[in-house]
Design brief:
Blueprint: E1 5-9, H1 16-28, E2 36-40, H2 46-53, E3 58-60, H3 79-84, E4 89-92, H4 95-100, H5 105-117, E5 121-126, H6 130-134, H7 138-150, E6 161-165, H8 179-197, H9 199-202, E7 207-210, H10 218-222, E8 229-232, H11 239-246
Parallel strand pairs: 1-2, 1-8, 2-3, 4-5, 5-6, 6-7, 7-8
Helix pairs in contact: 1-2, 1-11, 5-7, 7-8
Bound molecules: phosphoenolpyruvate.
Length: 249
Amino acid sequence: MRKKIVAGNWKMNNDLAQTERLITDLRKQSKTSKAEVMIAPAFTNLWQAYQTLKESSIEVIAQNMHFAENGAYTGEVSASMLKSIGIQTVILGHSERRAYYNETDESLTKKVDAALANDMRIIFCFGEELEDRKSGNEEKIVGDQIKNALFHLKDSAFKNIILAYEPVWAIGTGETASPEQAQDMHKFIRKTLTDEYGSDVSDAVSILYGGSVKPNNAKEIFGKPDVDGGLIGGASLNAEDFFAIVNAF
Ligand code: PEP
């Protein structure tokens, strides 16, 4: 049985006091679904968030990391630094990082390897741009993003990999892929994995959908057979909305 996961990507939102307030609000919510819940606050607030939530069922995860172990990379944070404060999971390849910080398949491959070498779990994000979909190239783009960054890995690595399909045109735009569009792409992603690694691997990998998931559309999207959860941006900044999505399973 694949894990159901709902992860909140807080992006560059919430200072320390706001982080504490949102965590307090999250702890007041009740979870009625079996989904694993994760939140990704900013680097500056990870330690505090981790300390507050370490005995709870909410996992605190990171939004990014560098591929090097340490060294002259001003402003960066490594996998072992994250591990040293208790963080076990990192989001890699978010479309905003690809677009604004020039993350490429090549640099992401190095990040994937560094995270796995530190025994971290990865939420690996990918997705096509609007022009790719308009020109019917979405499967080619998505297939290449997955192959280029992940297909050098051994089968066993996939127990630490969660995939997140996030069509760029649906992130923060209010535009959502229809549940059918999400299912079609998730099915394609699982087949891409099956073709390379076999169904023992592909059936076990959770594939999340991200892109304007809200309380009013989560149930329908999560109802699709190959959608195993969501990566949530805007709606994760409100405790009630986030838990309405968590409980949509
Ligand atoms: C995201 O940033 O991963 C995301 C899905 O954002 P939003 O839910 O706001 O579209």
